[in-house]
Design brief:
single chain, globular, alpha/beta, about 150 residues
Length: about 150
């Protein structure tokens, strides 16, 4: 059975924290603060690639989430967040995930829905009703992105 990944509060909402969660039996959630997202957005602007900010940040957060889970998954289903950008995001996830592991999982995108455990965990974390397992800081994500 594939694991599910969902986010609460999109990356481009830089005034809010974004929570991204895995759920399939166990659960794991990471958080990227609005402050960190604003710093990353500014860095992408300085590099002349502002259009990549959302997709690269989302993909890198998913790669970090999978690394933190310490579980090897063969199939992952990610909730569709950025319609039409799935191929680009999948490629970015593989590129980043390749730095952490040898065998890469199959990644698919589909609507997960609000009844998903991954959605619930991400939502509760974004609403500050659940603590994240990890908060990603600016320097960590910048280093992984190789910016």
């Amino acid at each position: 059975m594939p694991i599910q990944i969902d986010q609460s509060n999109k990356i481009e909402k830089t005034n809010k924290n974004t929570a991204i969660a895995i759920a399939n039996g166990s659960e794991l959630v990471i958080l990227i603060t609005g402050k960190t997202k604003r710093k990353l957005q500014e860095l992408f602007r300085q590099k002349g690639k502002p259009q990549l900010f959302v997709y690269k940040t989302f993909a890198t957060c998913i790669a970090i989430l999978l690394r933190e889970s310490k579980t090897k998954y063969s199939e992952i289903v990610i909730d569709i967040e950025y319609v039409g950008k799935e191929k680009v995001i999948r490629s970015m996830i593989y590129e980043t995930l390749g730095k952490f592991c040898e065998k890469l999982p199959e990644i698919n995108f589909q609507t997960i829905g609000k009844k998903s455990k991954a959605h619930n965990v991400a939502y509760l974390t974004a609403q500050k009703k659940k603590l994240p397992n990890k908060i990603i800081n600016f320097n960590e994500i910048k280093k992984i992105m190789s910016l």
